[in-house]
Give the backbone structure.
Amino acid sequence: MSEPLLVLALEGIPEVQPGDDLGTLLGAALARTGGALPLRADDVLVVTSKIVAKAEGAFVDLATVQPRPEAVEFASRWSRDPRQVEVVMRQAVRVVRADLGVLVVETRHGFVLANAGVDASNVGPRSGAVVLLLPDDPDASARRIRGAIADRFGVAPAVVVSDSMGRPWRVGITDCAIGVAGMRPLDDLRGTPDADGRPMSATIRAVADEIAAAAELALGKTARRPAALVRGATPPTGEGSIAEVIFPPEYDLFR
């Protein structure tokens, strides 16, 4: 009988401020959340990119932003704040599509997503005056969190930094991994037999994304629960990077 999947939203994480020690806050939350301890080496700690970015001070004060003419024109056409559009444009290395009030761009991380991940919701007490960027290096952020948890508890669970994204051809958003530490984000099943004994030729499981999505079901969007422990997912072992999930340009049929 397989082990059940357990997702525990961590309790009591306060509003995160720039400079906060996120490892300490998460360690305290793990200690107060019933059933979380003792940690296991195959646990996965999922932390939303929002609190990572807040702790790292990835805010942009909109009062300091001077939008370029293209941002003003796009914002005027779609009733958007031109300063927010300008911030999105600054985060883009390539604009994939600009229409219907949405800028789909490629960020320097390699992510292709709406509005470069720039977030104006749930940004804290300065809501409306600031926007929040994605973490500068989500893999490095995940490694720091993992190290802090290992120092406190003597066990180093894998860490996934998650963010909400839309999906091609489907309505709605789901959480995906944008940074990992202590696990491989993909489970490559090519060459292994399927249930009928036939070798699979194309199946690669997006395990880090699946774990991020499972965690989001427990976290929700408005409950102020920005981290969860996932147990029983048995992630692929090894030191991985989120770069492994970036689709190679030569195979991108929509580029």
